[in-house]
């Protein structure tokens, strides 16, 4: 593959799938500067993955896999860094949606483990259990168990905060 072909593929991936990238980044990075750092990290990994894409899965699945794996690794490094320097690890909402329920949902998703965040994000995007399992790298039955537990956790949180409509 020529450099020009690679650049064109990369540019089209970023353009066509930026919504996916922004959703993943929003779930894993809460401050604007963190989102910018994570976007750069994801973009770099996408660039590196252009030659690795063989078409065994859909391009959307591939993009999610690269973005989620990069975000989970980044989040782990960030949490370790924050503990070393004593920065707060609570969610810092800097941009709010007009809908209070969406803000609440993003806050709750942000409190989940890295893998659970990925699972629920993919579920909300309409992926099947099989597709989620393939992207995350877990079994389909484990995916179902995780989704069930996440739903229970969100329902309990909604009851305790009067967010019954979610």
UniProtKB/TrEMBL annotation:
Organism, by scientific name, is Neolewinella agarilytica
Which family does this protein fall into? Belongs to the sigma-70 factor family. ECF subfamily.
Q: List the SUPFAM superfamilies hit by this protein, alphabetically.
A: Sigma2 domain of RNA polymerase sigma factors, Sigma3 and sigma4 domains of RNA polymerase sigma factors
Under Gene Ontology molecular function, one entry of this record is:
DNA binding
A single GO BP:
DNA-templated transcription initiation
| Entry annotated with the keyword Iron | no
Please name one Pfam family that this protein belongs to.
Sigma70_r2
Provide the protein name: RNA polymerase sigma-70 factor, ECF subfamily
Q: Which residues form the RNA polymerase sigma factor 70 region 4 type domain?
A: 103-154
Q: Which UniProt keywords apply?
A: Sigma factor, Transcription, Transcription regulation
Which InterPro entries did the record assign?
A: RNA_pol_sigma-70-like (IPR039425), RNA_pol_sigma-70_dom (IPR014284), RNA_pol_sigma70_r2 (IPR007627), RNA_pol_sigma70_r4_t2 (IPR013249), RNA_pol_sigma_r2 (IPR013325), RNA_pol_sigma_r3/r4-like (IPR013324), WH-like_DNA-bd_sf (IPR036388)
Keyword Transcription on this protein?
yes
Residue ranges of domain RNA polymerase sigma-70 region in the record: 15-75
């Amino acid at each position: 593959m020529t450099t020009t072909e690679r650049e064109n593929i990369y540019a089209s991936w970023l353009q066509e799938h930026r919504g996916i990238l922004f959703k993943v980044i929003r779930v894993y990075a809460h401050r604007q500067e963190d989102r910018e750092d994570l976007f750069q990290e994801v973009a770099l990994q996408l660039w590196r993955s252009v030659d690795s894409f063989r078409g065994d899965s859909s391009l959307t699945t591939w993009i999610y896999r690269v973005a989620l794996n990069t975000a989970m690794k980044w989040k782990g490094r960030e949490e370790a860094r924050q503990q070393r320097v004593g920065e707060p690890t609570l969610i810092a909402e800097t941009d709010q949606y007009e809908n209070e329920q969406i803000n609440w949902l993003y806050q709750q998703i942000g409190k989940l483990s890295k893998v659970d965040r990925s699972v629920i994000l993919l579920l909300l995007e309409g992926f099947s259990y099989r597709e989620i399992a393939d992207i995350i790298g877990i079994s389909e039955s484990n995916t179902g168990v995780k989704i069930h537990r996440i739903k229970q956790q969100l329902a309990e949180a909604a009851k305790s905060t009067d967010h019954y409509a979610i």
